[in-house]
Design goal:
Elements lengths: L6 H20 L4 H20 L3 H5 L7
Helix pairs in contact: 1-2
C-alpha cells in the first residue's frame, strides 16, 4: 500500500471527518443521515490517518508530490 495523499490532503480529511463526528453527535437528524455521515466520517478519518485512499488508486490519482 503506497501513500497517495499529501499531508495537506490528509489534514483536511481528518478535520472534516472530526467535524462530521461532531455533527452526528450534536444534531438531531433522521437516522439515514446520521448513519451516512458517520460512515463518511469514519472513511475520511481512516484514509487521512493511513495516507492511502483506495478511490484514488482506482482512478490512478495522487495528491502526493
Amino acid at each position: 500500500m503506497k501513500n497517495n495523499e499529501s499531508m495537506l490532503d490528509r489534514a483536511i480529511r481528518v478535520v472534516v471527518g472530526l467535524a462530521l463526528v461532531f455533527v452526528v453527535f450534536y444534531y438531531t437528524l433522521a437516522t439515514v443521515w446520521i448513519w451516512t455521515l458517520a460512515i463518511l466520517a469514519i472513511y475520511l478519518i481512516a484514509t487521512g490517518l493511513a495516507g492511502y485512499d483506495w478511490a484514488y488508486s482506482l482512478l490512478n490519482l495522487s495528491t502526493k508530490k
